[in-house]
Amino acid sequence: xxxxxxxxxxHKWAQVLSGGLTLAVMLSACAPPPQQVPIPAENGGFKPRxxxxxxxxxxxxxxxxxxxxxxxxxxxxxxxxxxxxxxxxVMPLREIDSLRTVSTERSWMLLASVPFVALGVVAATWALTxxx
Length: 132
Hints:
This protein is an alpha+beta fold.
């Protein structure tokens, strides 16, 4: 009876899903951790698409297209293009506690690939067990 259970389609799907879950955890671990960076000098900044987490008190705001001008830091929300002048958010430097680089795009791309990898595992498992 135990061997019948091991051959059942439900058991095979459970194995595939547990493998997919393991893969998802491993892929999410590949995302780079946030790294603290110093506030750049005046007229300095970061690459246009670099995502910067700006901490003020216990709240963080994530912007890109971040630049420093005299006594303020400015950037654009992630859902807008970095060149958008009317979308710019300006913060006084004296209110900023710290900056961190983050990579939300890379994390989402890794997580978005999980269903496709799981589908490949299902197809491979199906092909390998078709003869049973």
